[in-house]
Amino acid sequence: MAAKQKRSRLLALFAFVLLVGAAGVTTYRASITAGTAELEATGRHRLDLYVASLEREIDKYAYFPTTLGLERDVLALLEAPSATRAEAVNRYLERLSERAGTFSIYILDSAGRVVASSNWRRPDNFIGEDLSFRPYFRQAMTQGSGRFFGIGTTRGEPGYYLSSALVDGAQTLGVAVVKVGLDQLENSWTTAEAPALVSDENGVVILTSVPEWKFTTLRPLDEAARNALDRSLQYNRRTLRPLAMRTLATLAGGAQQVRLSDPDAHAPSAFPRAGVYLAQSRPLPGTPWQVTVFSPQRELRAMAANRAALAGVGAAFLFLLGLMLEQRRRHLRDRLAAQAALQRAHDELERKVVERTTDLSSANALLQREVLDRTAAERTLRAAQDELVQAGKLAVIGQMAAGIAHELNQPLAALRTLSGNARKFLARGMQDTASANLERIDELVDRMGQLTAQLKSFARKSSGQPRAVLLRRALDNALFLLEQRLRQAHIVPCIDLPQDAVQLWCDPNRLEQILVNLVSNALDAMEGSQEPFLEIGARLREHRAEIWVRDRGPGISADAAAHLFEPFFTTKDAVNGLGLGLAISAGIAADFNGSLAGANHPDGGAVFTLTLPICETTCAT
Ligand code: ADP
Known about the structure:
Helix content: 40-55%
Largest sheet: 6 strands, antiparallel
Bound molecules: adenosine-5'-diphosphate
Low-confidence stretches: none
Strand order of the largest sheet: 7-6-13-12-11-10
Shape: rod-shaped
Radius of gyration: 78 Å
Mean pLDDT: 85
Strand content: 15-25%
Structural class: alpha+beta
């Protein structure tokens, strides 16, 4: 993965370098081509200008020598030379030269000797000089006119010689020559923005905007050419150095790319004179000369380099932009893929959730059914428990039946006796005694009513709903039911309750049932005891009441202790014990968030402790 990443990075780098390089090179080339074309056009334009100005300059003097042939004095001098005539012609030529601004104007006879000259007054004048070796003389003599650039033999001044044959009828009498300087032209070139030169038929630079280039050669001269030059004294024996120019390439339009070395780097100049130039040449009409202009390519190259750099930067920018877009696209694609994966995972999850929900709802239905079943079972259990409680009660009542029968028999017997006596007393007229008997009967009936009412209340099926219950009242009711047994056993229970009334949060009927059970068991345990003792007490501890029933019986045997609260566990005979009392009592206590425990007292006997929540003062009685 890392190697792949590295390779793609290298590839991107390679593409980047390639793109930037290609953009730079292409732009550079295109810029050079376009710039060269522009430069060529400019060069051509300059050439046009220079050629035109040179032609104009030369043409100004073109007819001078010819017009001299019209001068009678000149022809007369040639036909018959004399000092007077010569002086007249000299003066004439002098005036003419001054007016025309030429170097000199002079007349040669047919032998090539100077017979009159505009500079006749000067000590170094040409008069008498033999100039027959000059090409312009020979050209004029043979062709009628001649043109020649050369350096003067006398004063060494370079100039352009225009010659014309002086003809009288069919006879050539001599030659008129005008020498003009092209310095002005040259001077105007020095301010041009690029170098320019005029080379003659020998390739020698005769006019140039760079003074150091004058009389240098554009091409090497062979031996024959050198000898010819020596003979014509064209350059007056000047040394002809080659121009420090090297041709680099020849372009399509005939232009050349050349490298110029500056002949004198310190010389003041309006333009650079070294470097790579575009050289363009054109022949000067009417002459064997070539005009050459040089256009510097340095700026062109600098501009092309700038453009290439700019193109490179542009390409780099485009590449980076492309890279960025590509990365963005890839990022987007990854994100979309991640989104799709997420969606798939989500769908899968959803599907699983639906599956699980279906499972869950069926499990839930099962659970609900189970809960319903359990509720039904609980209800059945509760009903069974209630039945059991009821059975317990009935069992207690059954156990108490003998006592109750005795309890009712006694007053019934008393009633019978009292009512019989009352009748007798009434018959005897003993009203008061009869009335006393009747009162006693009332009391007994009340007592019996109370007992049956108590029994009825005990036997009643209670709701089992908790409410505030006064402990004292429940205890009194329980003891009332057991009054006969207590009396028989000669037991007066010792009651030890807190001073403030204790209110419990339970069902009064069931509380009575527990108390009846506990007291009954205590009485059973102490049956036949010599010193029976029953204590019923209560104390409050942390929102609960602890109610104890203590006897002084034999206590709970180890065997019984293990099974005390098990239903149907009894150590008593079938008549006296069902083994339900404690089991039911413990169940009732638990129903009201309480508990029941049995233990042996250190001083002997058993003590049963019932713990039940108390009702705070806010509870209604
Ligand atoms: P029953 O009284 O019908 O036997 P209980 O559930 O009330 O049923 O009592 C179960 C047994 O617990 C009794 O048979 C007895 O052995 C023992 N027991 C209960 N109370 C006492 C007590 N105060 N002293 C000694 N043993 C007791």
